[in-house]
Amino acid sequence: MVKRLIIHGGAGKCGSSALQTWLPRAGLMRSDQIGVGRYAVLRRNGLVLGESLRKRAEDSLSGAKSSPIFSNLGTFGDSFPELLRRRLGQYYEDHDFLVISNESYFHTSEGAHLLLDCVPDDVRVEFVAWVRSPVDLVNSAWWQWGAWSSSSLSDYTGKFLDTQMRWGEFAEKYAGLVDSVDVVPLSGDIVGDFCDIYSIRQRAEQVERANASLPGEALRLYQRHPDLRPEPHRPRFDFILSRSLPGGKPPWVVPMDEVERIIDFMGEQRPLLEKHVRAPYMDRITSDRRWSDPEVFRSKAVEDWRPQEAADSELDDLCYQLVKALDQTYRERGL
User: Fold this and answer.
1) DSSP-derived 3-state class of residue 221
2) Region of residue 182 (left: phi > 0; alpha: psi -120 to 50; beta: else)
3) Which InterPro entries match (predicted)?
4) What is the value of pTM for the model shown?
């Protein structure tokens, strides 16, 4: 049986949290294609996996656990590479494959050597990333990160395209570093896709949506009370509210000129991108007009991306105080 390391990345807002929630629960995974393996998270002591990882995930607000970004591996000290090399060697004595995951890995291949240099020579390295229809992604990304930055929607879109959505180029860079690259257009069931691609025998148990979009009213509340979302990458209140509120759709804020800009940009990336999409999944792009036809979005009612006044200021303040009270309750529970 060939030994493999599976590195999972993503293009943002494409189900990574759902996969990172399911994988620790899956425990010891069995695959017709790649034997027996586990999901692991990289830490200073090498690897966290098994029951320890499952408990850490379940005890977290999000329910998910990912490995650190590549650049953080360089802060683990001079002895870390040798420690990780030794731990990986020991791991592959008893297992055929290992999975690690961080959504940022897709667009940070320049730091991948911090991991790849520690992988045993007889281990095949495979990279897999999920992507979603690009215009929908930008709207979601705005509410996940952009709205809590100091950027306008147009400026953020340009920066996001340039740094996060050069998917064809990202795939090509990984193709020069690892043994195989798979890019998978998201269908809505990333866990099912993962099990299908790697022939995982146990079928995916139902996983509650992790990091699901909040209702638009909650996002507008954030805008009026910036301390609820002080920075793009501090989503604590997202996880708190997602436990108490039903999921929703974020307000649609992408106007037609930006829609056309995004689709034109992705059209330039598609020839390289599609080199790395398996035939069974190509139909998810070619049959979905959202990838190539701006007119699909013409009927969308576009809201202003900027903060909006509350219709009822007293009710708005009450909602704010309730969110803060929920936060205090979770802190008292150690979360």
Assistant:
1) helix
2) beta
3) P-loop_NTPase
4) 0.94
